[in-house]
Amino acid sequence: MIESFETFLAVAAAGSFSEVARRQDVAVSSVTRKIDALEAELGSKLFHRSPRRLALTDAGEQFLPRARLILGELAGAKEALNAGDAEPRGLLTVTAPTVFGRRHVVGALASFLRRYPDIEVDLHLIDQIVDLSEQRMDVAIRIGLLPDSDLRATTLAQVRLVTCASPAYLARKGRPHSPEDLLQHDCITVASPPAPGFVWRYAGVNRNQPLPVRGSFRTDDKDGMLQAALQGLGVLHIATWVVCDQLRSGELVALFPDEAGAPSSPGMPGIHAVRLPGRSHATKARLFIDHLRAEIGDTPWWDRMLQQDRGVPA
């Protein structure tokens, strides 16, 4: 039965009996027999089959997350039994957004590997959403509002936004005293439509709708936005985890001080670690997620620093 579950998940991911047979180095008929046996056991067809296309049925769609969960629980139990008191070892694969990964994941991985020297890590920094099953990833760091899925998610921190600019820009253009004043300023914005929660929205301003700010420089790269702000190209509205160091050094100035490091509002996007049930490396994934969460802290260390600078008790 377990082999049938594993074959079902492999076929669902590949969309092909022959591709799974090729990967497993078995005959296509062997893969087909396992799916036939599983369908007979469940009393439901799991795939629509035709010479040109293989697709999950409604029953297959419903069974897919349950199969992953069952195999995940089994793999976790097996790994826990085999591990005993032994130190965790082997490969852990992690993916994270490029800028967040460089600034906050690499350091956490360094201390994680010092703590667990028998573990090896492959870190993939990429801004696109990675299919954990297809790419065989153990942990993904994702920033934003998570859609419903069968992934196991752990919230690491809430995102807090701050509006800031360089002293050179403020000397040249003047300092905005309220969010409405931003409409008269050069604002560094994204080149593509912003994700929900990352727009220029301020409580009680513009009927709580996003401000239609404009500027001469746009980019989708957070480091590019930061460098543009440091060069005095305009006002920046960005997550505190990006600009904490520059705010503390004075290279950037928070325009509305109560905003920086203030408690996040409901509905704000979060920073999450997600993993897929069914991976055999569940114990290592949980260990790393717990380690990363502890490194960041209940109040993220970058927000805690800004609160301390403002004289707010940590």
TrEMBL record:
PROSITE patterns: HTH_LYSR. One of its GO terms (molecular function) is DNA binding. InterPro entries: LysR-type_TF_proteobact-type (IPR058163), LysR_HTH_N (IPR000847), LysR_subst-bd (IPR005119), WH-like_DNA-bd_sf (IPR036388), WH_DNA-bd_sf (IPR036390). Keywords: DNA-binding, Transcription, Transcription regulation. Gene3D superfamilies: 3.40.190.290, Winged helix-like DNA-binding domain superfamily/Winged helix DNA-binding domain. Residues 1-57 form the HTH lysR-type domain. Belongs to the LysR transcriptional regulatory family. This is DNA-binding transcriptional LysR family regulator.
